[in-house]
Amino acid sequence: MTEKDIAKIRKFSRFAFPFDFPRKDDEIDTTEKQLQIIINVLKRGGDNLRKLIVSSLYALDIISFFSEGGDFLSLDETRTKRLLIKITTSSRKTPQNIFRVMRFISTISFWDSFGNEKIGFKIPQRKNDIPKISWEIPEEPKIKIEGYKGVKWDIERIKFGKFVRRDIRMVSDVIVLGSGISAGIISERLAREDISVSILEKGYFVDSEISSLFLSQSTELMGMFPVSSIANINAFFGKGIGGLGNLSFSIFEKMPDDAKEIWRKFHGVSTKEIFLDFAAKEAEEVINSKGNGNANSKSETIEKLSEFFGTETKNFNKIKGEKVNLLSGEEIFSPEKLIKYAVHFGANLYLGFEVEKISRGKKWFVEGKIKDEFGNVKANFVAEAKAVFLCGGPYGNTKILWNSGFKEKILGRKVKIHPAGLITAIFKSPQEQKDSSNYVELSKEGIFIKEIKLAPGVWSSIFPTAFGPDLVKTAKKYPFSRTFIFWFREAGESYFVKTPFGVMLRANLKGEDIAKFLFAIREISLALLSCGAREVYHPIRFVPIFTTPDDINNSNIERVKPNQLEILSIFQTGGCPIGFSSDTGLCDSTGRVFGEKSLFISDSSSLPDSVLVPPMLTSASFGMLSVNSFIERKNFILK
User: Are 228 and 295 in contact (CB under 8 A)?
Assistant: First the structure.
């Protein structure tokens, strides 16, 4: 039994039985009592009982995933109650049996530890209250933490926040906030230079075996409040070891010339003048040395879309790895591997350490909370160092600097959300399916289209107001479905704002953005229908699904209101942009914050504008620039 299993049982009991749970200081002792009771029960019941409980927890997650679009722990209060009502009122034996097993283990482990009366949730009585389960029981999954081939994780250098019971203090030469691609480049290089490094990550290791669990572990979903439009927009923010690299479907696409021209024209920033192109080659060599070579492949449906639009397909220069990508379902190179090498060379990794603010005296002081995997605060921490690298992404870096009292006008500005949409097509017969890294670019409109493997149940959790439930039912009936994502550069300029509820991201979409979004839906839907799709599910509320081209023409897409659109942002840039002075940017071309000699911003938050493609390689390039600049001046900074 793991802590996640305990959390599932706690959550089930909290909703199924009407008594209050202890809070704050009492919670730790109570959890330990519950764990001890469960261990005693498992010892008495033997291996069969353990398998029965584990399989029931698995089955509960599966029912939760297909019914509500997420694993049991990720559901909010409303969806949890709705799920339990469905299970208890179901006429099928499997949900009833799962409920009885869960009720049994909850009764044993929670009532005994609290001393409460047995006033439980009532369901129709059956002959056998705890029936014998006849279905096959899957083996308990093994947590893989050995690392990659050649180098294993040095567990002695990893501090898990969920096991911390008191406030702690750490001292090192350099602190790196985050564990994404740029943080991995920086940490690994500093560790090889025999510099003391502490890596602070608010998440934990990401389990990619179950997509719904991967989603809840590796992402934070934030709703954005628009200014000039009222479109519904959700943004993905990465967390856990690897950061957004676990979600973005490419790491190694180089910045196209179109984006370089935009930077030069609107920001006066030349990628050649800041040696970004050279840094990209350096970063790519480092990543290639630890990867498994290129892994380009094609998709039959993407090829058909390419023929329909009269344009060529393109390939992301992607490196294969051992991590399964949530969106594409492909094996990708994860930044986790660079973090592993950094730990191997001597860096210390702290998991569950969420930074709240930084301050400077003679040294830098980093303060924050230590949390477990479920967000429960365990303790406080203070870390001191001579230099700090902020690699927490646009949202994380902006939030930390605002909490720390930075008042620069440019902070939180020049954010690009890259509006995106999901379209699913149901085909009459199977289509050839491969791990596709190729995509179609509509160059005139600046729209990118790629096939992904996002499960319908996950989509229903992202877009609950569109066709989520209907899509799940249809996908069960017609399993030959394909999901496509499209995205483009935002014409407007989004930005972060401080509110009484914390830092929020506002999307300042222009009419041009809305028109391009609707154009993409129309053209992609027509192309999919021409490729043999029987139904097309689109991200527009209150508009029926498309089954024929006439449905598209009769739907008057051009007259759709912005609040009917379900817009998604899969990667964001900006918030702490580079510039030539403090009037135009927050940091210089090496990521060093103006006015500070030892504070660096070294990830996608420092990009002054859109990259047009997933910004993983560009972010790694900035990390390489920052760490090279630091090493050249390390004697001055660390003295």
Answer: no
Displacement of CA 65 from its chain's centroid (Å) = 17
DSSP letter at 539 equals S
Q: What is the pTM of this model?
A: 0.74
Contact 240, 218 (CB under 8 A): yes
> CA-to-CA distance for 289 and 223, rounded, in angstroms?
38
**CA nearest neighbour of 355 among 380, 373, 330:** 380
Question: Phi then psi for 227, rounded to 5 degrees?
Answer: -110, -60
Burial class (CB in 10 A: 0-12, 13-18, 19+), 251: buried
Tokens of 474: 């249809």
How many C-beta atoms lie closer than 10 Å to residue 92's C-beta?
8
Looking at residue 359, its pLDDT comes to 93
H-run or E-run covering 331: strand 331-332
Distances in Å between the alpha carbon of 540 and those of 236, 465, 549? 19, 9, 16
CA-closest candidate to residue 564, choices 425, 415, 424, 421: 421
Positions of the chain with pLDDT lower than 50, given as ranges: 18-28, 111-148, 464-466
Distance CA 174, CA 634 (A): 11
Q: Which long-range contacts (CB under 8 A, 24 or more apart) does 377-380 make?
A: 378/161, 378/162, 378/164, 378/165, 378/352, 379/161, 379/164, 379/165, 379/166, 379/167, 379/168, 380/167
- pLDDT of amino acid 476: 56
Residues 6+ apart with CB under 8 A from 301: 425, 431, 451, 482, 484, 528, 531
Residue by residue, DSSP assigns 573-627 as EEES-B-SSTTT-SB-TTSBBTT-SSEEE-SGGG-SS--SS-THHHHHHHHHHHH
Q: What is the pLDDT of residue 199?
A: 96
Two structure tokens written together for 361: 């005296």
Ramachandran quadrant class, 502 (left: phi over 0; alpha: psi -120 to 50; beta: rest)? left
**Please, which residues have CB within 8 angstroms of residue 267's CB and are 6 or more apart in sequence?**
577, 579, 584, 608, 609
Alpha-carbon gap, residue 120 to 18, rounded angstroms? 7
In the prediction, which pLDDT does 136 show? 38
Residues 56, 94: Cα–Cα separation, whole Å? 10
Those residues with Cβ within 8 angstroms of residue 480's Cβ, 6 or more apart along the chain or in another chain:
426, 427, 428, 429, 430, 431
- Cβ-proximal residues to 8 (8 Å cutoff; 6+ apart), any chain: 57, 60, 61, 72, 73
Can you give the pLDDT at residue 141?
39
Measured CA angle at 288 (ends 283, 294), to 5 deg: 125
569: tokens are 């942002």
If we measure between CA atoms, which residue out of 431, 7, 34, 455 comes closest to residue 215?
455
Report the C-alpha gap between 323 and 443 in whole angstroms: 31
- 404 closest CA partner among 183, 601, 180, 159: 601
b/e per residue 393-431 (b: at least 16 CB within 10 A): bbbbbbbbbbbbebebebbbbbbbbbbbbbbbbbbeeeb
